[in-house]
Structures are given as structure tokens and as C-alpha cells.
Amino acid sequence: MTAGPLLELAGVSKRFGSIIVADSLSLVVRGGDAVGMVGPNGAGKTSLFSLISGDLSPNSGEVHFEGRAVTRLDSAQRCRLGIARTYQVPRSFEHMTVFENVLVAAYRGAGLRGHAASSLAAGVLDEADLRKQANSPASRLGLVQRKRLELARALGCKPRLLLLDEVAAGLTEPEVAGLVEVIERIRARGVAVIWVEHVVRALVGMVDRLICLAGGRIIGDGEPLAVLASPAVKDVFLGTSYGEASQT
Ligand SMILES: Nc1ncnc2c1ncn2[C@@H]1O[C@H](COP(=O)(O)OP(=O)(O)OP(=O)(O)O)[C@@H](O)[C@H]1O
Ligand SMILES: [Mg+2]
Fold first, then answer.
1. Which residue, judged by its Cα, is nearest atom 29 of ligand 1?
2. What's this model's pTM, rounded to 2 decimal places?
3. What pLDDT sits at residue 202?
4. Residue-range definition of the domain harbouring residue 76
């Protein structure tokens, strides 16, 4: 592991017409960190993930990963360096089996071939508790397994930084607890995690640090309960108690 930050954003801005989704954002994440991210709908959370993963390029500012400027690299290149994400709407290949879906990630994301790729994919299915579904087509999975497959596809890229976009949305409380266990295991291997979730209870138990985003800006960053208690953060969630925060 490098001594410097794993991820560093310096003055990253992104606009869509008149909408500012990232307003000169600066952020440092260290190897092995577990960071939660909250913010109202439209705050710019998914856009921030896209700016980190390379699905979007910023209008200005720089993104560094392990000390290297990656701002001009595309998402496939950044994935090879160790940045993987899940998508809010799962993007699995429906006609392929669960195992094949993860194998594609091992080939394309991690750059492995043959036995190395299949053994990585098998290990990932174990880690995500999907071994029993290995030979089912993705199209047959229920919601919780779909979310696990989305996570497994990201893990198939062998990330050092994992960006989770609402992987717990729509799940029951026991299903969320099961997913938190999986994410804890991933984190225990030293993978840094940034986890966007409206189900704040799931986050607070797991992360060391919580960031609140609103209007493309960081309005809270620190110890989770302190961030949730801060007036600026309470303000943007006015009318929504955290226990009942929307699960969209
Ligand atoms: N490709 C795009 N083109 C134009 N506008 C976009 C695009 N992507 C996002 N937006 C807009 O940017 C704003 C931020 O969207 P983003 O998806 O990043 O928010 P979010 O915090 O992830 O919200 P949610 O909690 O609903 O997932 C929204 O107003 C959205 O409509
Ligand atoms: Mg989003």
C-alpha cells in the first residue's frame, strides 16, 4: 500500500447545463477507509462516483488515484488501476449466468485470463454469498441477489477502491444486515469503500466517516453521528428523520 492518499479529488467541478453536480469538490480517501455518503436526491452523489470512476469527465479539477493523475483516463483504464463501482440500477448481463457475469469482470476489469480469472470469480461468488446461484441466469435473480451480483461484478475487477451506489436500497432489514456483513468482509481485506445509501442506519454502523453532499458540495464530513447532528446537514434533510429516510 502506498503511503499517500488512495484517492484525491482537487477542485473537481461538473455542470450539466445550468445544473452544477460537483462544485469545486476536494476530497481525500486513504487506503482501507470506510466512508459513507448521504445527501438528498439530486445532490450529486452518483455524479461524484462517475467522476471518480471515469464515467464522467470533470469540467475542471483533477482526480488522483494512488498518486497518479487519472482525470483523463476512461472508466476501463481506471478499473484496471483498481477503481470499481456498482450502479444504482444494476447492469448485469441478463442472459449470462451469475458466474459468467463475474468472469466478464475478471477478464475485462481485472485483466485476468484462464484459471486465474475463473478462480477469482469463484472466490468472489463465495464472498458475495452467491455460490448457489452461480449457474442461474442473471435474469432469474430476485432483488437482493441482483444487488449482490452488482457487488460481485465490481469485486471481479479486484478493486482497491469500491464505490457502492445504493446497494441496499429496497431491501428488507435482514437483507441489509446480510449485505453489511459482506461489505465488512471486503473491507477487512483492506479494500477502501465509499458507500452511498439513503438507509442511513446501515451506514452508520459500518463507516468511520460520513460525508454529506448537497448541491454538488460537501456540507458535512467527519464522525458519522456528529455529521448527522450538524445544523447544516439537518437543514438539507428537513422534514425527513434519518430512521425513515427515503429508500429510493
Ligand atoms: N447525464 C446527465 N445529464 C443531465 N443531468 C444530469 C445527468 N446526470 C445527472 N444529472 C442531474 O444532476 C443532478 C445530480 O444527479 P445525481 O444522479 O448525481 O444525484 P444523486 O445524489 O445520485 O441523487 P439520487 O439520490 O436521486 O440518486 C440531478 O439534478 C440530475 O437530474
Ligand atoms: Mg444517485
1. 42
2. 0.93
3. 83
4. 1-82+159-248
